[in-house]
Structure formats: structure tokens, C-alpha cells
Design a protein that fits this description.
By secondary structure, this protein is mainly β. It has one domain: Pnp Oxidase, Chain A. It is built from four helices and 14 strands. It has a seven-stranded antiparallel beta sheet. It has a three-stranded antiparallel beta sheet with strand order 1-13-14, with no helix packed on it. Strands 7-8 form a two-stranded antiparallel ribbon. A hairpin with a 4-residue loop joins strand 13 and strand 14. The protein binds flavin mononucleotide. The site of flavin mononucleotide has 21 residues, from strand 3, strand 5 and helix 1. Flavin mononucleotide (FMN) binds next to strand 3, strand 5 and helix 1.
Length: 194
Amino acid sequence: MMKRQLGQTDIFFPVPAALIVGGTNEEADLATIAWVGMLSSTPPIVGVSFDKRRYTLELIRKTKEFTVNIPSTEYYKETDYCGMVSGRNTNKFEKAGLTPTPGSKIETPIIKECPFNLECKVVQEIQLGDYVLLMGEIVETHIDEDKVEFVNNRPQIDISKTNPLVYCATVREYWELGKKLGNAFQSGKELLNK
Ligand SMILES: Cc1cc2nc3c(=O)[nH]c(=O)nc-3n(C[C@H](O)[C@H](O)[C@H](O)COP(=O)(O)O)c2cc1C
């Protein structure tokens, strides 16, 4: 297959469409953020990249904490709404019918309707062009109890029940995951002795 060169772009896919919450109590706000990913395991650190103008970023900078909430596909319209409207003058939680719920380690709420949630404390901030990369140490992880099983004391998350929303930036489309193909660190073994 021949390749087409697209030049220097910010096209990158697939990514999660995460709902990031900043602030506390009535002041909490949320924004849809696609530029999010794990950066380190020990300690677990997640990176979240905000345009400098975001109100959610302003709130996070005050408390130095945020939560990452992964919506399931049924919430794609609410997720889109939270990515189009600023919370500076609007209560997006109310408008989107999403519920801020207390976490356990920080004051910033998690979102009840999202099956998977991380509580994070900001450990570093880096300016990158017109964006700010926040690095947050994950201090607690939440998963809906009907979407996890414990095998040998290790949590096994049921991905199909969790049904995370996927965003494809270049075409600006929301997708869902397809079917499971195999197990990581296992499926490639048949190529080891080829
Ligand atoms: C699918 C999607 C992904 C987005 N990803 C980002 C992102 O990675 N970083 C960012 O700063 N804004 C991103 N946005 C835009 C913000 O969510 C949007 O500007 C939002 O209104 C900010 O709200 P706030 O001002 O209440 O913080 C995204 C929007 C959508 C719809």
C-alpha cells in the first residue's frame, strides 16, 4: 500500500473521550478531553492536556487536583455537549444530567454515571505551545462494582460491560470498541520461534 504524507498534524487516534472534573462542591466543572493518557506505572501518573483558555484548567490549578472519568458509549451526546460549552457561566453537570459524587482521597468529585474514575493530584505542569500538560498522580481508582471481578486478588475489569467511548480526532467521530481479538503479552507468542 502506498502512503500519503499529511505533513505536521495533530491527528492521533483512537483516544478516549474523557470527562475531566476540576474544582469542588458547587464550583466543580467538567470538560471533555481527548488528549489524555497514562505516562508512568510506579507511581501511576496520567497526563491530561488542556488549552490554556479552559475554565476546568483554571479550577484545577486552584486545588491541584482533578478526576478523570471515562464515559460509556451511551453518554456520547452528553460528552459532546461538555466539549462544546464552557462551564464558566453554565452548570454543565445539571445540563448534561451528570452527577458529581464524592471520591475518597481528594475533594474534587467523580462522575457517578461514568463507570471508571481516577482521582489525581497534580505533580507537574508543563507548557506546550498553546496547551498545558498536567501530570496527575493517581491516588484512587473507582470502577462500577458490576464491571469488575477479582481473580487471585487482582481486579479484572469487564471491558464489554464498561463499554468505553472512543474518539477519533481526525474525522471528529465517536465510536465504540469492537470485539476482543486476543490477550496482550500472549497473542504474539506464536511468532517467538518463527
Ligand atoms: C471530543 C472532544 C475532545 C476534546 N479534547 C480536548 C482536549 O484534549 N483539550 C482541551 O483543552 N479541550 C478539548 N476539547 C474542548 C473542551 O472540552 C471545550 O473547550 C470545553 O467547552 C471546555 O470547557 P470548560 O471551559 O468548562 O473547561 C475537546 C472537545 C471535544 C468535543
